[in-house]
Amino acid sequence: MIVVFPVLLLVATVMAVRRAQRGLGSTGAHWRWFAAWSAAGAALTFSFLTGLSIGIFVLPFAGALLVWVARRVPRLPDAFGFVAGVGLLLVVIAFINRAGDGVDPMPWLLAGVSLNGVALIAYVLGCQRQVGR
After folding, report:
1. Judging by beta carbons within 10 Å of its beta carbon (0-12, 13-18, 19+), is residue 87 exposed, middle or buried?
2. pLDDT 10s digits, 4-57
3. pLDDT over 90 (residue 113)
4. Percent helix, strand and coil across the chain, each rounded to 5?
5. C-alpha to C-alpha distance for 12 and 54, rounded to whole angstroms
6. How far is residue 108 CA from its own chain's centroid?
7. Where are the alpha helices (DSSP H) in the chain?
8. pLDDT value, residue 28
9. For residues 119 and 80, is the Cβ–Cβ distance under 8 A?
10. Is residue 131 very low, low, confident or very high in pLDDT (cuts 50, 70, 90)?
11. Which in 17, 65, 76, 119 has the greatest CB count within 10 A?
């Protein structure tokens, strides 16, 4: 499980960069691709965090979703949605543990909000850079 996660990320990164370098598919609603990357990021992170319990069963679907999105990404800035998906899942974990009975929710919330902020800022800046070309 620990080895599969970085390998999937590496494969998806190479696929997305190669596709973006070839300039394929530069039209369409880009926020949908950002949302698709977010779903892939949340699914892969969920699979990683749940480890050997249900994560092992979620991993094939999360990996397939990640590869599918990476093969079809029209623009590279849309891939910042992956980071937003990770952040969204961390915020959900903080929300689930908000009563503070087990896990302290504050680190999860801060990490999730920070990742979402970074992803959205990077996405906006990346989109502006793409438009400026």
Report:
1. buried
2. 889 999 999 898 888 877 765 545 567 888 999 999 999 999 999 998 899 999
3. yes
4. 85, 0, 15
5. 23
6. 16
7. 4-22, 30-50, 56-72, 80-96, 105-131
8. 56
9. yes
10. low
11. 119
